[in-house]
Amino acid sequence: MSPLDVPRLAPLRRDLALIAEMVAPGSRVLDIGCSDGALLEHLAQQRGVTARGMELSQKNVNACVARGLSVIQGDADTDLAAYPARAFDYAILSLTLQATREPRRVLQQMVRIGRHAIVSFPNFGHWRARLHLLLRGAMPVTEELPEPWYETPNIHLCTLRDFIALTRICDIGIEEALVLNGHRHRASLDSPWRANLFGQKAIFRLRKS
What we know:
By secondary structure, the chain is of the alpha/beta class. It has helices at residues 14-21, 38-46, 58-66, 76-79, 103-113, 127-136, 160-169, 192-198, and strands spanning 28-32, 50-55, 71-73, 88-94, 114-122, 172-181, 185-187, 201-208. It has one domain (3-124, 157-208): 3-Layer(aba) Sandwich (Rossmann fold), CATH 3.40.50.150. Strands 3-2-1-4-5-8-6-7 form an 8-stranded mixed beta sheet, sandwiched between helices.
């Protein structure tokens, strides 16, 4: 197949593009909660990875299969235990951890089955969420948390500080961390208090200590 025959991919969301940059070319990847497969497709075509996916929604599974991706229906809370240790180089969970029933167990399973785990989540410690609670006394509705509390899939919202504390409890090392401020800016955790206040999303690359 010539370069002209390769279909052009739609641009990735900013957070997904940053996750893709953390993945070494030619590695084995499991994308947990892979949605419509946009990240998996990008990794397969642009990074040459062996791409596998797990997705709860049958509709999204069908969409992934239609794109030629190897994706199965599965639940992160219950089905990760079926994978052997170190089956993948990277286990990825993008904007899904806060929607799981047992985030601690999911995180532990990820670092068991992958040499690295990449996790992203919306930061509930962002100043807009804090201000909304302070001034209105109600659960915030923001760009990163768009659903009202009675419709949201998120059941375990956390801040950056909460997540870092969980990694310590689970004896998980942080290899890299990025904080997204809006659509254009990213920063590290060199100043954790500032990142927790101004970061809208966070991306962590982890491994078992």
